């Protein structure tokens, strides 16, 4: 499958230290995809990097009754984009989960349905096809890919450049992708 840098975009989801081994919300082997994502990003003209970017007391934190430990506090080192994805390759950063009372798994809208503007940004750049990579496959990658397809983009998840929170989620998430018209591809198949 050939990448067309003028019509394809790479969406790098939450490649952040807090999701790497040793971080407060570590995804197993999350660090193993950083270097290959950085290499892949060099082949695209449009690279969007999403960041969980939470205020203190965010609704997703266990202390507030949410499901997750404190992670990706706005401005913290753990919320930065991993260093293996250089700033020079990123055309746009999209920070999500910035409102204290609403979480946001998808890069296209928050959990209350408020659009982020990503769809319009990509369409203005002439993008028709999205390649989605990053963390975590069963949460933010899943939500971003499904919402991208619902917004009218052809969406492919580069499966070997994702990692899940729960490895047992594979069949469920694959079913969601199939139902949402999201394809899976391996990075070795991209030229």
By secondary-structure content and strand pairing, the structural class works out as alpha/beta
Shape: globular
Over all CA atoms, what is the radius of gyration?
Answer: 15 Å
Mean pLDDT: 97
Instruction: Please estimate the helix content.
Output: 10-25%
**DSSP summary, beta strand count:** 6
Q: Biggest β-sheet: count, sense, barrel?
A: 6 strands, parallel
- Which ranges are low-confidence, i.e. pLDDT below 50, for 5 or more consecutive residues? none
Topology at a glance:
Blueprint: E1 8-13, H1 34-41, E2 46-52, E3 92-96, H2 118-124, E4 129-135, H3 137-150, E5 154-163, H4 170-179, E6 182-185
Parallel strand pairs: 1-2, 1-4, 2-3, 4-5, 5-6
Helix pairs in contact: 3-4
């Amino acid at each position: 499958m050939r990448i067309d840098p003028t019509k394809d975009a790479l969406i790098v989801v939450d490649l952040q230290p807090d999701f790497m081994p040793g971080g407060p919300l570590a995804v197993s082997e999350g660090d193993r995809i950083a270097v290959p994502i950085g290499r892949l990003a060099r082949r695209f003209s449009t690279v969007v990097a999403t960041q969980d970017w939470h205020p203190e007391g965010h609704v997703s934190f266990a202390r507030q009754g949410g499901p997750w430990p404190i992670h990706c506090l706005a401005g913290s080192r753990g919320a930065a984009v991993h260093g293996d994805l250089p700033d020079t390759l990123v055309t746009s950063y999209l920070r999500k989960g910035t409102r204290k009372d609403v979480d946001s798994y998808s890069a296209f809208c928050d959990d209350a349905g408020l659009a982020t503007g990503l769809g319009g940004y990509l369409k203005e750049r002439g993008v028709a096809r999205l390649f989605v990579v990053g963390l975590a496959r069963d949460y933010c990658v899943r939500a971003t890919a499904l919402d991208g397809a619902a917004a009218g983009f052809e969406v492919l998840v580069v499966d070997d450049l994702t990692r899940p929170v729960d490895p047992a989620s594979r069949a469920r998430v694959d079913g969601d992708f199939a139902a949402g018209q999201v394809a899976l591809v391996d990075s070795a198949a991209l030229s």
